[in-house]
């Protein structure tokens, strides 16, 4: 056990305890996000089509209160979540996590295909893994057009005439 000098212990020990509690709470929120997304998917798949939009709306509000989008899972996972208008043929994810090549820092223009939760679903998602402390800029590409994540209010300038959503992922 480390002994701290009197005034040091009194001044810094409460801050250390608060930091530990904050870390535990953050871990619990991330675990809840994982459980909440998987539960949302189960409920969405089981729901009659007429009730699905209400489920999506409720999940977006709840997740916004839990930490927003993208959804952070554990220390190194993220779920990118896109609610479509219904007429999309292709929804993809591009970002700083996938460069065009080893020698080129520009984003890969093709990106990662996002999957609908079920056939005909209005919700697309992509689950990815990153380094635990990663921060990435990203965009959705909907039918060939770059679109900011409307659920993520964090924006940064990212290249010529481009802004991107920023998330800890």
Count of extended strands: 12
Helical stretch tally: 2
**Mean pLDDT score, rounded?**
77
Spatial shape:
globular
How far the N terminus sits from the C terminus, by CA atoms, comes to 36 Å
Which architecture does the CATH hierarchy give at level 2? Sandwich
Residue share in β-strands? 25-35%
Examine the coordinates and then state which fold CATH places here, giving the name of the CATH topology: Immunoglobulin-like
How many distinct domains? Answer: 1
Contiguous low-pLDDT stretches (5 residues minimum) are 7-34
Radius of gyration: 20 Å
CATH homolog superfamily: Immunoglobulins
Helix content: 25-40%
Following the backbone from N to C, one meets helices and strands in this order, namely: HHEEEEEEEEEEEE
The biggest beta sheet reads:
6 strands, antiparallel
Short description, anyone?
The protein has 169 residues and is of the alpha+beta class. Helix content is 35%, strand content 31%.
Walk me through this protein's architecture:
The protein is of the alpha+beta class. It has a single domain (6-168), classed as Immunoglobulin-like, CATH 2.60.40.10. The chain is 35% helix and 31% strand. It has 2 helices and 12 strands; from the N terminus they run ααββββββββββββ. The strands form 3 sheets. Strands 3, 6, 9, 10, 11 and 12 form a 6-stranded antiparallel beta sheet that branches. Strand 9 and strand 10 (145-147) form a beta hairpin. The longest helix is centred in the first third of the chain and has 41 residues, at 6-46. The chain is globular, with a radius of gyration of 20 Å. The chain starts with 5 loop residues before the first helix and ends with a strand. The model is unreliable at 7-34 (pLDDT under 50).
